Amino acid sequence: MLTMLGSPRRCCDGMTRRETLQAGALGLLGGFGLPHLLAAEQNRPATRRPGRAKSVILLYLLGGAATQDMVDLKPNASSGVKSEFRPIATNVPGIQVCEHLPRMSRWMHKVAVVRSLNHKAGCHNTLPSYTGLEIMVPDNTITRDTFPPSMGSVCEFLRRGERDLPDYVYMPCYLGWGQAIRRAGPYGGFFGQRYDPLFTECTPYREPGGPAPRPGYPQLARGEPRLPQSTLGEGITVDRLHHRRSLVSQLDQQMRRAEIQPALGNFSRVQHRAFDMLTSSKSRQAFDLSREDPRLRDRYGRTLFGSSTLIARRLVEAGVRFVNVSWDLFWDRVQIDYDCWDTHTRNFHILRDVNLPNLDQTYTALLEDLDQRGMLDETLVVVMSEMGRTPRVNGNGGRDHWTFCYSMFMAGGGIRGGTLYGESDAQAAYVKDRPVSTSDICATIYECLGIDPDMPIMDRSGRPIPVAHGGKPIREILG
Asked: Does residue 51 surpass a pLDDT of 50?
């Protein structure tokens, strides 16, 4: 009989972990299998808060946004620390934002700001924000299959039935593509590659005729995300493609028992998803922005970030559960944006002239679009970075890396708008009140989706760990 160390703990289906292990399925599957997790999600005790959000749109600001110049301004701080920007009132008494976020100021009744986020897992470490696990990674330019799964991969793992679209889409390209690296975090990890997101591809370009970009002088990346290999090769018709799929399915029937082996299982799922995306009119329609009103496209902004965000709305409308849109750095591959949100130089110029106006436009267009369609109450919109920036401005007019205190914000499904949680000190340097970990943020997102943050998943060694790595939902911002 298998047992576990520690006191018995109730799973969300009412069984203790010990009872579940004694049932024998763990020994057959080598871990806490998908049927158990689906049962756990579906059979939550009545005492648990039901999930309000059907989907999540995560707007990821790579590089570490200077949130003390956005939503946690310190106008009374000393010179060299306080922002050059002026705080303005919002439609919620007592909450202020930066003067360069005027549209956002009119939506604060839907937004909750967390001002005490922190971690000690190192600068530019994207693993904690996607998974909740705060560990140092040996190299920020690679990912490993021993890392835990991302929130989107958990949604993909828990999907029910077969559909044309996946439950996890990542746009406009894999994280780090513009630097020719792969950053950790947005992957299936020890769940296996079959639960990686569907990564779109892109060909970013800058506005013709503009000045040549250089460090401290970025230009906006333009373009649209596209489905990978979204056109059929020469001589390949849809009928021939379906015939090939039929042959593959016949082989799959002979290999059912082997699909629990990671390599074979990965191949099957990834290949089937590729067939589905190529032949599905639903997926092609979701990515076809020519179907949208040009005025709506203008509202989102005809940038790569704006177009990706508009497609994100179309995807959640089509039923996708977790969509990530990254504002990524494009330099090594395409010399457009060297800084992104990593503003070591000319911080205030970059934010004022490029980043904040475009974030303000795209973010509020998304909220308004979702609200007008009756989707905002069931769509959680999250804006965050992997870290923050130093309280003191450096000699180049920039802010450097800082993980000890920064902010993020959420709106929509499951969130009590018009709220602040946590507090930074007088210089926005350290947490003054109610610290929040990245695992707490992940737990809050899971809670909004109706996924138990304590739900156990098995790592490669068979060790059970909570899916949110011990994080607790921030109850004060939940509606």
From this structure: yes
